[in-house]
């Protein structure tokens, strides 16, 4: 028995620290969403959000790395005006019938000290995949005050050009520059 325990201890000690220290989190759909803003003919800035999303996050604080995998339902777009939402779901914009999901999959999380600072990944929109770096604007982990379950939350942002993903309707009147903001709360698995 001693030999088996010694062998097990040896293998555990030789594993990379990240393999032991990574924590997995599942996004809370009630508190996770993507927002966007775009110029509307220079007169105003139109804001919208997607109400349905899911995802997983791994966070390895010891190795200062992690991953993010988020899926957003394109048809869940909401701008507060149903007729505009229907147009945004059409082939002119998000083409939600043909491309029901917008995804973001990261390759790494970069830390500044002990805190995640940015996420390197790829955004897929309308079947086009492009690299997008998210800047983490806020980050916090701890027990949820309502249910005491361990969770992490973050706010992240990026700037993209919608034309890079093939979304060219009404350019340049409806702006090409899109500000993206992501809010996530995720419970530890």
What does this entry show, briefly?
With 189 residues, this protein is mostly beta strands. Helices cover 14% and strands 54% of the residues. The protein has helices at 2-14, 17-21, 82-89, and strands at 23-27, 33-40, 44-50, 53-60, 65-73, 77-78, 101-112, 115-125, 128-143, 150-161, 177-188.
Q: What's the main sheet like?
A: 8 strands, antiparallel, barrel
The ordered string of helix (H) and strand (E) elements is: HHEEEEEEHEEEEE
CATH superfamily: Lipid/polyisoprenoid-binding, YceI-like
Enumerate how many helices there are, as a single number. Answer: 3
Q: Assign the CATH topology.
A: Lipocalin
What best-fitting shape do the alpha-carbon axes yield? Answer: globular
Q: What is the count of distinct domains?
A: 1
Task: Kindly report the average pLDDT value.
Answer: 90
Distance between the termini: 32 Å
CATH architecture: Beta Barrel
Beta-strand level of the residues, as a percent range? Answer: over 45%
